[in-house]
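Q: What would this complex look like in 3D?
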Amino acid sequence: MIPGRSHGLGTVCPARKIVIVLRIREDLVDAMVAHARRDHPDEACGILAGPEGSGEPQRVIPMLNAARSPTYYEFDSTEWNAVYREMTAKDEEPVVIYHSHTATEPYPSRTDIARAQEYAQFLAPPHYVLIGTRDPERHELRSYRILDGEVTEEPVDVVPT
Amino acid sequence: MAVTVSIPTILRTHTGGEKQVQARGATLAEVIDNLEANHGGLKARLVKEGTLHRFVNVYVNDEDVRFAGGLDAAIADGDNVTILPAVAGG
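A: Here is my prediction, written as structure tokens for the whole assembly.
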């Protein structure tokens, strides 16, 4: 049993008629949580890449938090360019963008929502996974879609590996 | 100066779906004006009040133009220009 894991069949978003749920392999969850613990009390951030348009995360890419801050994260711009180029060459895209909240609940902040709106003007909106590390024993993991400034939590279906 | 510009997925609505387009210019500002002339709507996504949008990253080859003069960054023949959103949050 994975702490922070949630179960569900997915919910239907009426406006878009799409089932939203994040299916994710257990080893990818473990890698994100380990990264978040490693960087605590600073926020950790990274990408789960997968084939373009598939919605299936396949590999984890931990990114540097250029802000090195407990309350803010920003991809290092040079690293992001190199990673994006590598993904493009493999016909991959960021399926998930994850970051940690180290002292507050794992819910998108106003800054997270504002930045997500800007991101969506350039690249397909990813699943936003937040990992809460405020409790040293038990992490929290949640996934959200952020579309037009609206946050929708989605169930996370962790697939054992 | 002819350069290749890589267009992120959502902005491809302005380029007829093309992932990469050619543009000309001696500076990034000229390249963006040339892009706008052929693919209307792109400039407004990149530039606001004469400077690059705060949350857009533009690269010439490997370099983030913020560290190379911004819109005044010099462009050489054969350069690759990449447009990406900054990824950040709180």
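A: To summarize the key features: Chain A touches chain B through 33 residues (CB under 8 Å). The first helix of chain A runs from residue 26 to 39.
Q: Very helpful, thank you.
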